[in-house]
Write a structure and sequence with these properties.
This protein has one domain: SH3 type barrels (Roll), CATH 2.30.30. The chain has a six-stranded antiparallel β-sheet, with no helix packed on it. Helices cover about 0% and strands about 35% of the residues. It is mainly β. The chain starts with about 25 loop residues before the first strand and ends in a 7-residue tail after the last strand.
């Protein structure tokens, strides 16, 4: 995720939970938001057939884009108050 935002926020963001404090609150899920789970982070890149499409790294040891449940998410963040990725 560090390579997917405007500027690399640094190695402390190698820990997924750190992303819960990145940027500003996204106010909930939407395309372009960063979704944070306790041990995983991804970027919402779509919404199809009632499912959120999330791109994330280290998902089954690969970078994947797939429908994911947002259950258990602890934060939805945006890099800037009015900007999407």
């Amino acid at each position: 995720m560090r390579s997917q935002v405007g500027g690399d926020p640094g190695p402390s963001f190698n820990l997924a939970r750190s992303w819960a404090h990145y940027g500003v609150s996204a106010g909930g899920p939407h395309v372009g938001a960063i979704v944070v789970w306790p041990h995983h982070v991804g970027k919402i890149v779509g919404h199809e057939n009632g499912q959120w499409i999330v791109q994330s790294g280290n998902d089954g040891h690969a970078i994947r884009t797939r429908p994911r449940s947002l259950a258990g998410a602890i934060a939805f963040r945006s890099a800037y108050a009015s900007a999407a990725f």
